[in-house]
Design brief:
By secondary structure, this protein is α+β, with helices and mostly antiparallel strands. The protein is 36% helix and 35% strand. α2 packs antiparallel against α3.
């Protein structure tokens, strides 16, 4: 008798395998779909800048903008403060060294001169009085010294005579002793007067020397004050052109205040700013070329300023030989600054992509012209037109050189 076998309800082991395979297929489909949506960007080809990699001569230079300036500028600061009473020369006028530009007035300085003159007169009177006093003491001292010397000689002679007489027992001992004591007293007095006279002479020399030195200092001080009076006449410090003058009649000028400048026009220089990217390569004595009306003028980089402001640093260049005949301060010129020797290599056109990638990668257009894919590259030097391409591309390949900011994280660009 046959037994009816009932079908088991629910999932069987083989069903689990089908489920796993189905889930894997769904997951792979999802990854493919989502991967394509995030790594692909579609855009119109006409909106992009596309350049071609080429092989050629790479000129290692950069183009910079410079402004013509005088070879040197001398600033005029007020030596003395005061009120402007006269303005003799206007801005833009050619001046000679020593020309008076402004005249100032300073009442306090005039009063200081009067006080210095009075002090000098008092000091001179004191010196004369001191000299008279010392001269009187010197005369009196010499007179006392002469009298003392005369008295000493007289008593010495008396003493020597009495000594002889006493030894011959012709006078008494008392008379001899009196003569001896008078002589010794006179000798001591002479020594004292001589010492006093010598000290007075030394004191006279020292005191008068100090007084003369004080008087000389006061005269020097007074002469310096007179110079300050002369400084109220603001003069041109050098030959040149009065660039600007910040002073008007009646204006009060403070001591040390900057009131103008003289532009020395014996020659010119060009002041330029360069991107800080080149700060390690820009050195003194580099050569630059100025192309003006079909003529080239050579310049030399004279000075590099170390300070960087707003991503740029400043340099000064001077003409090596000739300069444009129509050159004027304030003109703007474009210069080619040569950073190194020229060489043959692959040339990558410059573009906005560099700001997005830092030169680490670029989108390369395939042979069909419809797709561009991301590729790693390495660039070297750059000039105003090209990057020096070291690796990653070949001559003839097309690349997108415009900015990549709108592409997001796309790995592939579809070009319509």
């Amino acid at each position: 008798m046959d037994i009816k076998i009932e079908k088991k309800k629910g999932l069987r082991p083989k069903h689990y395998g089908f489920i796993v395979i189905g889930l894997l297929l769904l997951f792979m489909g999802y990854k493919i779909a989502t991967g394509n949506s995030t790594s692909t960007f579609r855009t119109e080809k006409e909106k992009l800048s596309i350049g071609e990699v080429s092989f050629g001569k790479f000129d290692d230079y950069i183009t910079i903008n410079g402004v013509v300036a005088p070879i040197s500028t001398i600033y005029m600061d007020a030596y003395e403060g005061g009120r402007v009473t006269e303005k003799l020369i206007e801005e833009g006028t050619m001046v000679k060294k020593g020309d008076i530009i402004l005249k100032l007035e300073n009442r306090a300085l005039y009063e200081q001169i009067l006080a210095s003159e009075n002090n000098l007169a008092l000091k001179q009177n004191d010196l004369r009085s001191t000299k008279l006093t010392f001269d009187s003491r010197q005369v009196a001292g010499k007179k006392d010294l002469v009298n003392s010397k005369y008295e000493l000689q007289k008593l010495k002679r008396n003493y020597e005579q009495n000594k002889t007489l006493f030894e011959d027992e012709l006078i008494s001992k008392e008379e001899y002793l009196i003569a001896k004591e008078n002589y010794e007293l006179s000798k001591q007095q002479f020594d004292i007067i001589k010492v006093q006279t010598d000290q007075d002479n030394v004191l006279r020399k020292t005191s008068l020397s100090e007084l003369d030195a004080d008087l000389a200092r006061m005269k020097k001080t007074l002469s310096m004050v007179y110079e300050r009076i002369d400084h109220l006449n603001v003069r041109a410090p050098a030959d040149g052109q009065l660039g600007f003058l910040d002073a008007e009649i009646g204006q009060n000028i403070q001591q040390g205040q900057r009131i103008g400048q003289i532009n020395v026009l014996t020659d010119y220089k060009i002041e330029a700013t360069i991107d800080e990217h080149y700060i390690d390569r820009v050195k003194r004595d580099l050569t630059a070329i100025l192309d003006r009306n079909g003529k080239e003028y050579q310049l030399r980089l004279r000075k590099v300023y170390p300070e960087v402001r707003n991503g740029k640093f400043k340099v000064d260049l001077v003409f090596v030989d000739k300069k444009p005949e129509t050159i004027r301060s304030g003109q703007t010129y474009n210069l080619k600054l040569q950073l190194g020797a020229s060489n043959e290599g692959l040339l990558l056109p410059k573009g906005g992509f560099f700001q997005s990638t830092g030169g680490q990668w670029i989108f390369v257009v395939d042979a069909t012209g419809g797709v561009a894919r991301k590729r790693s590259i390495r660039v070297g030097k750059q000039n105003s037109r090209y990057y020096e391409l070291l690796e990653g591309l070949e001559s003839g390949e097309q690349v997108i050189t415009s900015n990549y900011d709108s592409f997001g994280d796309a790995e592939k660009i579809i070009l319509k």
